[in-house]
Design goal:
The complex is a heterodimer of chains A (about 375) and B (about 400). With about 375 residues, chain A is of the alpha+beta class. Chain A has helices spanning about 5-20, 25-35, 40-50, 65-80, 85-100, 105-115, 220-260, 270-295, 300-325, 335-350, 355-365, and strands at about 120, 140-145, 145-155, 165-170, 175-185, 190-195, 200-220, 260-265, 265. In chain A, strands 1, 2, 3, 4, 5, 6 and 7 form a seven-stranded mixed β-sheet that branches. A two-stranded antiparallel sheet of chain A has the order 8-9. In chain A, helix 7 (about 220-260) packs antiparallel against helix 8 (about 270-295), helix 7 packs parallel to helix 9 (about 300-325) and helix 7 (about 220-260) runs antiparallel to helix 10 (about 335-350). Chain B is α+β, with helices and mostly antiparallel strands and about 400 residues long. Chain B has a four-stranded mixed β-sheet with strand order 1-4-5-8. Chain B has helices at about 5-20, 25-30, 40-50, 70-80, 90-100, 105-115, 230-235, 250-265, 275-305, 315-335, 345-350, 365-370, 380-390, and strands at about 120-125, 140-145, 150-155, 165-170, 185-190, 195-200, 205-220, 225, 265-270, 270. The relative contact order of chain B is 0.10. Classes of the chains: A alpha+beta (about 375), B alpha+beta (about 400). The interface of A and B includes residues 275, 282, 306, 307 and 365 of A.
Chain lengths: ~375, ~400
């Protein structure tokens, strides 16, 4: 199902209205001060709004809204500086579970993901921060009681407080075979090490010491990597939409500021040098947004890599220019811009740095015949 | 009318057509970055006209095919990647559409079929020594004497004036009142007595620019387009034509293909250029920008196809597309290294052990200089910034 334009507009309006109350500075601070940055009652509230099921199929109690609609939503959530890990959990990880879960496990988990009673996070990164989709460092061994997992996963936003974790591990016997497992966070041997991130969100690393996992899917490394990449692109595109929403808000704050701030007897915005710099930011943002929506409609690896690179740069330019155009006030924590600055700075590297996206795009453009 | 419901099929047809019909000498001239002669270009116009592909974006009434902008952009891209020369937009995208909209029936009958045949070359007489971006301050004057205007003054930066049969010029017909309200739009035969063309050799060694002098040039009144003193309206309308094409996606892809080819075929210190980290990062960065530009252009194309108005926001396409071409040219020159230094590719071709691949080099630097014009002509990047600041951001 894809949403028509009117339904999409209703979604955007309702997200905006919700955020006005639920993402006030006080509410954001409270969510951020929560032990893992995701108070369960607030997460369930997102479920009541229907948002947690948007990435899930209708037959599993979801809305199957499609990535373009999800991007319009996350754009609003980015503007609102939502603290909870909506992209990491409700899009990337729920999406992956929906790809692979079958039978009883599927019936048990998916409806509860929609309502927010359970939350799942895919530990997508290796300890070094890389993806290594076809060669995870963790290993799986078969025991009489089931599969046991051993290894580490890198810092993942939103992992703390999740009910289930999705992890990949190499299968025994054949080094070229990768398994995808569901690990209950309460299971012995699975330890999440949570930390607040500098943008007010939280993330966690995972250690697995003979921890039990349920095998969801196994495949040759390349086939597994292809499946994971497809899902990762969805999450990355949604993350970019969220980042761009945040960048647009920071831009608007800056625009308002330079219009009202007077120096030498006139508004800062009357200076052409200020105007042209604002235009450059605006154009970059609009271009990246067009690319984001195109990638949401058709997420080719090339587009996703280009999007990652562009949004990293836009995020960086936006927070840097926003501070410069404000002057010293832009560097303070108490002024409204500060939170956007921190969010944008971190977001630029969260789903792959600009450098890694450029490496990927160079590989796609130069190492293959067109 | 869209005579190709399947645009992939269309693209294949254009590619095949180019392989079969683009003259080999012209293809080589373009690949080597040398300036095509007027004869080469007119011959190519005639080939395109015979296939019905010279002015496909014109309405059928005037020999076009009424292609929509999406189809035009696919066509332009295929032409650019097939090493066809960039067509003279002044002739086919500017004066043609201006005459369709503002020309008298006589002017339309007289000029449009000849333009559509590819045999007539036009140039644009807008800029003057003291009127570049600020066109309202033109001083070349036209004084009415019965049925003729007598034109005196000069135009400068007239692109391809040395090839042109006709010039359309902004001239001052009234000195009182607002500067914009005393300008008329005249069509002038370049063979008229009193016209002198002085070619200006550019830093790239090409003659693109010219200075055109008018000394008592007599222009029949029936060659004025629109009303007297209302030429500003006609002139401004040019800014509304084909603004989506100013993203220059095709011309960017032409450069990308060349940059890629250089990277894959040239070696530096025992290592292929395409394997050097500096090249890979820069190539990918520009490719990412191009993918973004294309997505952004598509947004406006979709809007236009849906019959919506394209507002001033579209200036961003020209701003980004023109700059990106320059960045590709920089990368090409850097990737070629010393191979880009010789003045003429002939020198390289005559070196011992030279292969046909060397044809790419030689004039890389002239192409780079040529690309600087994209951010100046047709509304400089600074003007585009001003438009976006005032009309879109409301500053």
């Amino acid at each position: 199902m894809t949403m028509d334009i009117d339904t999409q507009q209703m979604l955007v309006d309702s997200a905006r209205r919700w955020a006005e109350q639920a993402c006030s500075k006080v509410e954001r601070q409270a969510a951020s001060n929560h032990t893992v940055g995701c108070p369960p009652e607030r997460w369930r509230a997102l479920g009541e709004l229907g948002w947690l099921g948007m990435a899930l199929p209708e037959e599993d109690g979801g809305l199957d809204a499609g990535l373009p609609a999800l991007c319009l939503l996350t754009e609003q959530l980015g503007r609102a500086l939502l603290v909870e890990p909506f992209v990491a959990s409700a899009i990337l990880s729920s999406g992956l579970l929906a790809e692979v879960a079958t039978g009883e496990l599927r019936r048990e988990w998916l409806p509860m993901l929609s309502t927010g009673e359970r939350r799942v996070v895919w530990m997508a990164w290796e300890p070094d921060g890389g993806g290594a989709l076809n060669a995870p460092s963790a290993i799986a061994t078969a025991h009489s009681a089931g599969w046991q997992l051993q290894g580490e996963k890198g810092l993942m936003p939103g992992a703390g407080g999740a009910d289930g974790l999705l992890v990949t591990a190499r299968m025994p016997g054949d080094q070229n075979h990768v398994g995808l497992f569901l690990v209950d966070t309460q299971t012995p041997g699975a330890s999440l090490h949570s930390t607040p991130l500098y943008d007010g969100r939280h993330g966690a690393r995972l250690s697995l010491v003979q921890a039990q996992g349920r095998l969801l899917h196994e495949a040759p490394a390349d086939a597994m990597a292809a499946l994971l990449e497809r899902v990762l692109i969805q999450g990355q595109v949604a993350h970019c939409a969220e980042t761009l929403g945040c960048a647009q808000a920071a831009f608007e704050i800056t625009l308002d500021y330079v219009r009202s701030r007077k120096q030498f007897g006139r508004a800062l915005s009357d200076n052409q040098v200020i105007q042209h710099r604002l235009v450059d930011l605006y154009v970059e943002q609009q271009e990246a947004r067009a690319l984001c929506l195109a990638a949401a409609a058709e997420g080719t690896p090339e587009r996703a890599a280009a999007l990652g690179a562009r949004v990293s740069e836009v995020a960086r330019n936006t927070w840097g220019e926003a501070i410069q155009l404000h002057g010293a006030i832009g560097m303070t924590e108490e002024y409204v811009l500060g939170e956007y600055v921190r969010r944008l700075a971190l977001a630029a590297d969260l789903y792959g740095s600009a450098a890694s996206h450029l490496d990927r795009l160079a590989h796609l453009s130069l190492d293959t015949t067109p | 009318m869209n005579d190709y419901p399947d645009l992939n099929h269309f693209r294949q047809d254009v590619d095949r057509f180019l392989r079969e019909h683009l003259p080999a000498d012209l293809r080589q001239t373009v690949r080597q970055g040398q300036q095509p002669t007027r004869e080469q270009l007119i011959r190519w116009h005639e080939v395109l006209a015979a296939a019905g592909w010279l002015v496909p974006h014109w309405p059928e009434q005037w020999g076009g095919r009424g292609w929509n902008v999406r189809q035009q952009m696919i066509f332009d891209e295929a032409m650019a990647l097939g090493d066809a020369p960039e067509l003279n937009s002044v002739t086919f995208d500017m004066i043609g559409p201006v005459l369709m909209r503002y020309g008298s029936p006589e002017q339309q009958r007289r000029f449009l079929p000849t333009i559509a045949s590819g045999r007539q070359w036009w140039c644009q007489g807008y800029s003057e020594p003291n009127a570049g971006s600020d066109l309202a301050s033109v001083v070349t004057r036209a004084e009415r004497e019965g049925d003729v205007y007598v034109v005196n003054g000069s135009k400068i930066w007239t692109s391809y004036g040395q090839y042109a049969d006709w010039i359309f010029a902004l001239v001052r017909t009234r000195r009182e009142g607002k500067p914009q309200e005393g300008i008329s739009f005249l069509l002038i035969d370049m063979k008229s007595p009193g016209i002198t063309v002085r070619p200006i050799v550019g830093v790239h060694g090409w003659v693109v620019f010219n200075e055109v002098f008018f000394d008592q040039v007599r222009v029949p009144v029936e060659l004025r387009v629109g009303e007297e003193n209302r030429g500003w309206t006609v002139a401004k309308s040019l800014l509304e034509f084909e603004r989506l094409k100013l993203a220059r996606i095709g011309e960017n892809k032409r450069r990308m293909a060349r940059a890629r080819e250089v990277g894959l075929t040239r070696w530096r210190e025992g290592r292929r250029v395409a394997d050097w980290p500096w090249y890979r990062t820069r190539f990918a960065d520009l490719h990412a920008r191009l993918i973004a530009l294309e997505a952004n252009a598509e947004r406006f194309v979709a809007r236009q196809m849906a019959g919506e108005k394209i507002g001033p926001e579209v200036s961003m396409l020209k701003l980004r597309g023109s700059r990106l071409i320059q960045l590709w040219e920089e990368l090409i020159v850097d990737a070629l290294g010393s191979e880009a230094a010789p003045l003429s590719p002939d020198w390289l071709l005559n070196q011992p052990g030279a292969t046909s691949q060397d044809a790419l080099a030689g004039t890389a630097s002239s192409r780079r200089f040529l690309a600087r014009g994209y951010t100046i002509a047709g509304g400089s990047s600074e003007i585009q910034h001003n438009i976006l600041a005032k009309q879109v951001l409301g500053l």
